[in-house]
Amino acid sequence: MDGSSHVTELLRRWSAGDADALNALIPEIYQQLRRAARARLWKERAGHSLQPTELVHEVFVRLDGHAGISWRDRAHFYAVAARMMRRVLIDRARSRKAQKRGGDLHTVTLTEARAPRQSMNVDVLALSEALDHLAEKDPRQCEVVELRYFGGLDQEEIAEVVGISVATVKRDWGVAKLWLRRELSRRT
């Protein structure tokens, strides 16, 4: 059984309530989630308090609360985990904003993980609102951005999750990135 099939089997057993499957699953998926968390948090403002391990653990806590999810495969799991990372970061930003009444907004850098350093600092709440707007306009592009930006998946993995070609992923990523930059520049 290859790694992907093994993870899929563990996910399905976990969905069925097998606690041993979760214990076997964690070492299989932990490093990928930690890499994705590290990539997201590296772009945070200096002095942020959230660490990659803490973000991954928060995702696991939230996933455990959704133990009844019927996992299709490994890619489905990473897609859900990416959305949960986004929610954790947004929830923390909202909490910080409420505590400081709008001061010291939580920022992230919108950039392609493996691209040259062309980046743009944005408020994570503004990014979330822009992604919600993009989801209304083009749900698939929004999903590609979430998987790439929050999930840390590469183009081939995104193609697998979404069920489209790598060329379509590249096109959606490029269009969505341009649209988001324009949308975010309007909000600042």
Kindly describe this structure.
The protein is 71% helix and 4% strand. The chain has helices at residues 3-15, 19-42, 52-64, 74-100, 124-137, 139-150, 155-162, 166-187, and strands spanning 107-110, 120-123. The chain is globular. The termini are far apart.
Highlighted features:
mainly alpha, 8 helices, 188 residues, 2 strands, two-stranded antiparallel sheet
Strand order of the largest sheet: 1-2
Strand content range:
under 5%
The string of secondary-structure elements, in order, is: HHHHEEHHHH
The SS-based structural class is: mainly alpha
How many H/I helical runs?
8
Overall domain count? 1
Average pLDDT rating: 80
Q: Over all CA atoms, what is the radius of gyration?
A: 17 Å
Q: Unreliable runs, pLDDT <50, ≥5 residues?
A: 111-120
Inertia-based shape? globular
The number of strands is 2
Fraction of residues in helix: over 70%
First-to-last CA distance:
50 Å
Q: What is the makeup of the main sheet?
A: 2 strands, antiparallel
